[in-house]
Every structure is written in structure tokens, then in C-alpha cells.
Amino acid sequence: MAETRWRTERGAVAEKRKRSRFWVWYVSVSLGLLLLVLIALAVAWGALSDYQRSIPVNVMDSVLDAFQKENSDWLLSGIRRGCSEFEDPAKVKSLLQERLQEGQAVSYKRAFSADRIAHPTYTIYAGEQELAKVVLRRQPQQSRFGFSLYEVDAIIPLAKSKGSLSFLLPDNYTAYLNDIAVSEQYRTESGLELEQSDWFCGSSAPSRTAAIYVVEDLLYTPVVKVKNQDGQEVKLRQDPESGELSVLMKERFILAPEGAHVLADGMEISGSEHFVLEKGLQPEGLSEVPLGTYSEQTYVKYRIIGPSVEPELTASVAGLVGVVTASSQPDTYLVSYPVTEEQQEAYTKQAMEFAKLYSLYVTGDSSKSKVLQNMLPGTPMYKRLKDDFYAGYFTSHDSTGFREEKTENLILHHPAYFSCDISYIQWVEGFVGNPNLSRDYPSAFTIHFVYLEKEQKWYVADFQIQSVPSEQPT
After folding, report:
1. Alpha helix (H) ranges present in 129-189?
2. At what angle do helices 89-100 and 56-67 cross, to 10 degrees?
3. From CA 115, how far away is CA 257, in angstroms rounded?
4. Edge to edge, what strands does the sheet with 332-336 contain?
5. What is the rounded distance in angstroms from the CA atom of residue 396 to the CA atom of residue 269?
6. pLDDT (tens digit, 9 = 90+) per residue, 184-243?
7. Is residue 429 a contact partner of residue 398, using CB atoms and an 8 Å limit?
8. Residue 429's CB: how many other CB atoms inside 10 A?
9. What is the DSSP letter of 273?
10. Looking at the whole model, is its pTM more than 0.85?
11. DSSP state, 469?
């Protein structure tokens, strides 16, 4: 009996232990399964979030947001890759911003793309108007869960183009749009012969053959520059019909004494008849002086053609370094003899004295005979002054004088001929009827002197009055 009871109690304990182990195992398994479900949910949530962050529309949202803000490097880089290399990305962004700020609804749609995976493309709309195309590109790296990541590859504005620019340029010249060189990829024609190329001269002269360059689809009118092979900027001309731009070629003329050596940009033009336009010309300013009156020096007129850049002109005259100055004639240069310090002082003094003498004659403070004594007899100017009856005698006055005296542009055209510009203000005081009145009369002359060997004297062959007494009291 006791044994039977003991066995019963032992079996009950064993059954209890068996049930306890079951529940431990059941709870453990349940908790494990729950943990696996939670991990799976976390992984799925992470993967879903990672996918949401990696889809291309997120990049598009960033693009729209960036247009509303200040310039960002990645946005400007995208615009730069989507536009002509000559466009200013900041200006293009401003153009797109202006359209976005017109109050129209902004949206984007998926557009056709040859590779929708590697390069998905979207079109941005402002209302119903297409604004720009945005091309994305797949990045080499992937997201945490292996999804493709995207970034902006190019932003292509769909605004209307301002058109195109075409250039006809010598082969050794380069065009620049917004300071960016127009490369050979824009060349459409080459080997074209330039008109009048036979007249080009000098080391910096344009090539005799040219090419046409065309740049299309510009959103903004760029700053256009053209430079020669020395880096000097040259002027352009535009064809009124075709709009084609080309280098502005200018005709230039050089007047030089017979026998002078003249070089243009390092090339001697006086050694070739090709550049000679006229020979046997009288010196500038002495066209009315009869030949044989003075020691003659005839001139040669040369013609050259080149770009708008001023040519570097050098010359030698009678073994001396010549002086090259601008002539009174348009686009003309004058070659003359060098002037020593002694000549500068003596010749300018003589020119100033004659100019004052003439002004004193006009105001009645000197005589006509004194003026004529300094002029070359037989010249047209001498005859006009000799026959002139000065009807408008200057009003009587007490005193006169000169101030602000200037001598400029002394040119020794020949050892026996020089010219000089004179200017000053002549003041006159104490007029009849108004003794306290004082007047100023600005005067300017260009005076031409020739030297007569027989008389060993300089004479005025001609003079031009640039301005005359401006008013005369009555």
C-alpha cells in the first residue's frame, strides 16, 4: 500500500515536470518567432524606407526646391551640362526662376528616355508650358539595401533660343563668347580666301584663308570678342543681311618721303611696289605752294589693309630714325624727320612769334607789312593777305597781350620744311566807350614754314586758322 502510494506521487511529480518543460519550450519558441517577426518587419520597414529615399522623384523634388533658393553648386553644374558651354548657368537659372515665379502651378512628369534605368528623364512644367528637362543618372554606388541611387546629370532649359552666331575668321584668329574660346568643333567651313588679302602685311597680319564657325541655340546674347595671334582684341563688323560677324578690316595709308624705309608690324612695305598707291606727292600743307619755290621733297603714299588693331609702324629717313604721327587725313600716318632739342626750341619760338604777329595785325596792334615780311612771296596765302582790305577794323583799345601759350605737333617734314600747331588766348582791355571792359580771344593755328637756301631764311608758306577772335565789342 505504501509502495503504491509512493509510485503514484512519483508519477505526479514527473507529469508536473513534463508540463513545465513544455510551457518553457512553448514560450521560448513563441518569443523566438515573435522576435523573428519583429526583425523581419524592421528589415522590411528599413528596406521600404531605403527604397523611398532612393527613387528618382525625390531628386526631382530637390530640383524644384533648389530653384526657389540661392544658387547651389550641384544645380548650377547640372544647368552647365545641359546648356551650351557659352551660357552663364546663373543667368539660365534666373530665367527658369522667373518663369516659376509667374504664379503658375509647377509640376513634373516622366519623359521618354532611351535608358529609363540608367538615365530617367523628367519634364518640368510651369502650368501647361514646358520649362526644362531634367536628366538623372544612376550613381555607381547603391543604397544600403542595394537600390539604385540617382543624381542630377543635366538640366536642359526648354526656353526659346535667341538664335545662333556665325563668324568668318582668319585661320590665326580666335573668337570668344563670354571669354570662352570657340573651338574647332563649331567650324563648319574652312579654307576660304579672304578678300583683299594681298594687301595684308606684317607679322600680326591675319591669315589669307579663313573659316566659318557657327554656335547655335544660345539663350542669351553673349559678349563676343575676337583676338589675333598676338592676343590683341580686334573690332568686328556684322553683315546687315546674314548677320554674320567678321573681322573689321581697315584701309590705312602712310605718307613717307621718297627713299624712306617704312615697316608695318616688322615687314618693310617701302621695298615693294605692291603697297605703293601714289608717288611724287607734295608734302602735306604745301599743296598750294608752287613747285620750285623751295627745296622739293616728294612723298610716296602707301596702302595697307589689316584688322582694327593699330599697326606698329616704324621708319628711317636719311639714315635717321623716322617719326610716325597721325596725319590730318583720316586713317593716314605721316613719316617725318627727327627733331633735335635745338630745332624744337628755335622752330616753336619762330612759329609762336609769327602767330602773335598775325593776331596783333588783326587787333590793329601791328601792320600788314610786318606779317608779309615773314611770308613766302608768290604763294596763294601771301597774295590773299596782300590784297586783303581789312574792313572790319578792330575796336580801339588800350592794351593787349597773350597767355596760355602752347606749341604742339612740331613736324619736320624735310630739312627745309616744318609745321607746328600754335594756340593761346589773346586778351584785350580798355575798349573805347568802356575802358573797364576786358575780352579774351582764343586762337589756334597750324603754320607751315619753308627754308630758302639762297636767302638763308625761314618763311611762312601757308597757315590755317583753327579758331578766330570770337567776339568784337562795338
Report:
1. none
2. 90
3. 76
4. 276-281, 299-306, 250-257, 332-336, 323-326
5. 58
6. 888 998 888 877 666 666 656 777 888 889 888 777 778 889 888 888 888 888 888 888
7. yes
8. 14
9. G
10. no
11. -
Q: How many CB atoms lie within 10 A of CB 164?
A: 11
Cell 628755335 belongs to 346
Phi, psi of 44 (to 5 degrees): -65, -40
Q: How far is CA 41 from CA 33, 37, 52, 171, 343, in A?
A: 12, 6, 16, 70, 106
Cβ count within 10 A of residue 57: 13
Task: Dig out the grid coordinates for 247 from the structure.
Answer: 573681322
- Residues with Cβ within 8 Å of 60's Cβ and at least 6 positions away in sequence, in order, are 108, 122, 134, 136
Spatial separation of the C-alpha atoms in residues 109 and 45, rounded to whole Å: 28
Q: State which H helix or E strand residue 24 sits in.
A: helix 2-54
Residue 307: all three cell numbers together: 584688322
Instruction: Say how far apart CA 417 and CA 297 lie, in whole Å.
Output: 9
Q: What's CA 227's distance to the chain center, in Å?
A: 9
Q: Where are the alpha helices (DSSP H) in 303-415?
A: 341-362, 368-372, 380-387
Instruction: For residue 203, give the C-alpha cell.
Output: 607679322
Distances (CA, A) of 131 to 14, 26, 56, 74, 126: 83, 64, 19, 19, 6
Four-point Cα dihedral 280, 283, 284, 285, nearest 10: -130
What one-letter code names the amino acid at 456?
Q
Tens of pLDDT along 413-447? Answer: 888 889 999 999 999 998 887 888 888 889 998 98
For cell 624744337, what's the residue?
344
| Cα–Cα separations (whole angstroms), residue 163 to 80, 158, 242, 293, 460 | 18, 13, 13, 65, 62
Residue 59 cell numbers, joined? 531628386
- Rounded to whole angstroms, how far apart are CA atoms 265 and 273? 18
Cβ contacts of 255 within 8 Å, gap of 6 or more:
281, 284, 299, 300, 301, 302, 327, 332, 333, 334, 335
